[in-house]
Task: structure prediction
Amino acid sequence: MYKLLDKVNFPSDLKGLSLEELKQLCAEIRSYMIECCATNPGHLGSSLGAVELIVGFHYVYDSPYDKIVFDVGHQAYAHKIITGRKELFKKNRKIDGISGFTRMAESQYDAFGAGHSSTSISAALGLASAAMMRGLNEKVVALIGDGALSGGLAFEGLNNAGSGKADILVIINDNNISIDKNIGALHEHLLKLTTDPMYNKIKTHIWNRIGEGKFRKAIQEMVISAKSSLVKKSGGDLFEAMGFRYFGPVDGNDIGQVIHTLKKLRELKGPLILHTITTKGKGFAPAEEDQTAWHAPGMFDPHTGKRIAPSGHKESRYQDVFGEVLLELARKDSRIVGVTPAMASGCGMNILAKEMPERFFDVGIEEEHAVTFSAGLAAAGMKPFCNIYSSFSQRAYDQIIHDTALQGLNVVLCFDRAGLVGEDGATHHGSFDMAAYRSIPGVTVAVPRNELELKNMMFTGSRHTGGPFIIRYPRGYGEGTEWRNSEFSEMKPGRGEKMKDGEMVAAVCAGPVANRAFEMAERLKKETGKCPAIYNIRYLKPIDMEMLEEISSEYKTVITIEDGCMKGGLFGEISEYIASRGLRIKVRALGIPDKFISQGTQKELQAECGYDQEGIYTAMKEEMEKF
Result:
């Protein structure tokens, strides 16, 4: 079935292949990728588009001595398949399999780990600078998508790399812009000219003879101006101005052109930019036609491309609750706007974008900017809802503190994908938000346990005037609670609820785990005749002090349950309260332990961490049996 791919296990196996064989290999890699991802979902579209770039790199360069640094990791499937992980790829993103992203501990071919975007240039520059200082002849390549290039860290890396002398090639995998056929020939001509060895030898000789100084600078400015007038549409003048030598654009899905160009660029020194044009979803018609849906399509028929919807879910997804409620709130209040850093469909804000595009802002992959932009909107009297995935919000920690909380600005920050997210693994788990943000003065941290609480907390946030209002909620489906036909009801911060009476032991819960705790308490009551009390905090900050006083006066043991890191989170909050009052109450914690959790389904990972249903039941039973 895979005539060539069956023989390719490592990059060294590529070296003897002809151009025609390399073309066939690229087709087989795509077919294998589609076959595997049809039943084991992953990030398909980006990886389909980057096959030739990856095969070209491993054909021209000598990895792992030479290094390729991926941005995000969505593009890296072909890289994994041809670097000793072909069979393992069948268990990509599974609990006992390999990561869906590059991971240094997984393979010597993964030069740097990648989960979040815009990191590749800075990391590659570090690797290239180290090679230069150690006198090594290593070549370092950063592969970054045009979307990730918008991130601030990418520009910081470009700015630093362009002013240095380290040998670094940045390949821009541009899958959003087509080249006009009328100017394609001109670009191809310029590419051949600027990669020609004689041209570059003469250019380097001239620069060395001229030396540093005003005359050389004047010549460089004249060359940049001339190139800018010829390659106006390519954007090359921007990179040249930052100190890079710019080449391209080239067809990144033409393996012959990729190899020809990389061979020429491999011999050049200093910071280089290669601009490539690729098609996201290349080689699979459904993925090419609907690139957004096929970024991570879920399960599908590999022959027809028909996507297979998950069955058995009547509940709403939390992202759908957010999207519909935001639109409803925006209809009632003209000051409400939505802001997201390139997550509109994932967080549900595309619902607002469709009906009220003038009140929707997708700022690109720029979490820091999203928060400060929202703070500016709030300073002008608007009511921004800024939605960022929980793990991505870590990038905007400084902006949440200095630009928002310090100034008491009323920004509603909605952190989707809080807690363990599942197959995306350690880089994407929203483990740290409760611990991180509860320490900031003037911030409210809301933790809904179901869809209706999310709706009402959003309503409460829209009316809040006391500074940043954070709402964190998990990935996936809710509890099946009726919310669409329910009237808005304000949920006052600092007010929790007692869900169930009990004796001796109290389970204090944050978020949907409160529902699992309630269910396990019911089970324990039926089996033994007694059970712990169940409390839902609703707000981690400000926490319900009356509730804590009641718990500390009536119970001997407290079990904290949270879908977040125990250190500093709810466990930290309760332990601090008990310690500060000198109380002799035992506190047992269930949640994410002090380590990074890898990939798997949400249920598998919750079981691994000990706070799935059985873990909660066992903890309750053990503590109850002590009395």
